[in-house]
């Protein structure tokens, strides 16, 4: 695969990185800083980075972003990790896309959203990356610094929990 100019990488992936950061941070200034730092780090290492697919490039960028978010949380002396953070990872559009169903009643949307928030933050993140961001399990594993089999198992267990809670 031919490596695109870095300007194209920024243009093609800035929204993905922005929304990834936005789901983990409260302050808009922090989100903006993380997005900027992500692309600065990526730019400084872009020549050395080799990838075979867009998925590897996406995973690389999100991994950089995730590490920066973790560093930022630590630097603010916040002892809560990203996985333990009680952050709303889903909005109404995410819920509708995730269930791939026609949820038309506001009450139904709220019920699904409530049950999603009852899942662990790490489970919410895996579901969001797989369903909303349409990432492959391999890409998610790279992004989360985990094994692919572990990501698959956590994803399917989270879906089972969600389905059982909704029954």
TrEMBL record:
Name of the protein in its database record: Sigma-70 region 2
RNA polymerase sigma factor 70 region 4 type domain residues: 112-162
Keywords assigned by UniProt, alphabetized: DNA-binding, Sigma factor, Transcription, Transcription regulation
Family: Belongs to the sigma-70 factor family. ECF subfamily.
Any single Pfam family the record assigns to this protein: Sigma70_r2
Organism, as annotated: Candidatus Daviesbacteria bacterium GW2011_GWC2_40_12
Domain called RNA polymerase sigma-70 region: residue spans: 10-77
Highest rank taxon of the organism: Bacteria
Single GO molecular function: sigma factor activity
Single GO biological process annotation from the record: DNA-templated transcription initiation
InterPro entries xrefs: RNA_pol_sigma-70-like (IPR039425), RNA_pol_sigma-70_dom (IPR014284), RNA_pol_sigma70_r2 (IPR007627), RNA_pol_sigma70_r4_t2 (IPR013249), RNA_pol_sigma_r2 (IPR013325), RNA_pol_sigma_r3/r4-like (IPR013324), WH-like_DNA-bd_sf (IPR036388)
Transcription recorded as keyword: yes
